[in-house]
Design goal:
About 50% of the residues lie in helices and about 20% in strands. It contains nine helices and eight strands. The strands form two sheets. Strands 1-8-3-6 form a four-stranded antiparallel sheet. The protein has a four-stranded antiparallel sheet with strand order 2-7-4-5. Helix 1 runs antiparallel to helix 7, helix 6 runs antiparallel to helix 7 and helix 7 packs antiparallel against helix 9. The chain is elongated. The relative contact order is 0.19.
């Protein structure tokens, strides 16, 4: 078996370890006046059960003393747009008038919001207002549940069925390729190009399976398996690069004239590309985690 598609796999293991699952459970340590936390699109709520399910639950703890008042503020998409041009205290007043401002108390606490709409799907935004811009450190856990009882935001619905369908198609295609390669192997006519493409198909199926696992668990707990999802994205990207390189090399007749003579060089190139993806994903996750953007 050629080493080409296998060398990037240790990099995937490193990535899974380095990017643990993270949802909106976090510690905010900031001196910004107004900090975005999360947005979630709630579907239309008609029945009593849907109205009960559509909620945002917030719990928090403050490790150190509060230097000045701070609030969790909740806005719908129209309120969020109109609040963008006003100062921090005006944002807090607008949230209070809409019933969406909860003081952050030093003793910790919980807050529950039922977010209802009978007309259209609507995004709701959660932000922390620290209008005096003193240092604020708060640990919080935000759980958003949609009207259907799942933790899928509206723009995420349909992802799980889509991945499941593609996973089934990849499995059927992979089984067909494996049977075909086995029959060619029995006839001692298995070509290296066919074997390499089958290995890439195995990795592509693995990538789709990892993403499916993430979305299957995400709908139940709002967290999913972020390590699985990111590893799936990385495997998929690596397969795309490898497939393009294989096509380029095949166009030059390498697999016909030289077998796996140049497989080692291709393995080095693909491993280098995989390393670049690892660095980019880890860097992007670190920046997103440590530099929540302040909204003026």
């Amino acid at each position: 078996m050629p080493p080409l598609p296998l060398l990037p796999l240790p990099l995937l293991a490193l990535l899974v370890v380095a990017t643990q699952a993270r949802d909106v459970r976090d510690t905010l340590d900031t001196a910004d006046g107004f900090t975005f936390v999360v947005k979630f699109c709630y579907q239309v709520t008609d029945t009593a059960e849907e109205q009960e399910n559509a909620r945002m639950d917030i719990s928090w703890a403050v490790p150190s003393a509060l230097a000045s008042p701070a609030y969790f503020t909740v806005f719908d998409d129209s309120q969020w747009a109109s609040a963008a041009g006003v100062d921090c205290w005006a944002k807090v007043d607008a949230a209070k008038q809409a019933g969406g401002a909860t003081p952050i108390t030093a003793s910790g606490g919980v807050a529950h919001y039922h977010l209802l709409d009978h007309v259209r799907h609507r995004f709701w935004y959660l932000a922390v207002a620290n209008c005096n811009e003193t240092r604020l450190k708060v640990k919080f856990d935000v759980q958003c549940t949609n009207a259907d009882g799942t933790e899928f935001s509206c723009e995420e619905k349909g992802l799980l069925p889509t991945y499941a369908v593609f996973l089934a198609l990849y499995i059927v295609l992979l089984c067909t390729a494996l049977v075909s390669d086995f029959l060619f192997w029995l006839k001692q006519s298995l070509q290296s190009l066919s074997l390499l493409l089958t290995v890439l198909l195995v990795l592509l199926t693995l990538a789709c399976m990892l993403s499916t696992i993430h979305w299957a668990t995400y709908g139940n707990n709002g967290i999913g398996c972020k390590g699985c999802y990111i590893a799936g994205l990385l495997v998929d990207s690596t397969v795309e690069v490898a497939f393009m390189l294989v096509l380029l090399v095949a166009a030059q007749g390498v697999f016909i004239t030289g077998g796996f003579k140049h497989a080692r060089l291709l393995a080095v190139v693909i491993s280098g590309v995989s390393l670049v993806y690892v660095v980019l994903y880890i860097t992007a996750g670190t920046v997103s985690h440590s530099n929540r953007h302040a909204i003026n």
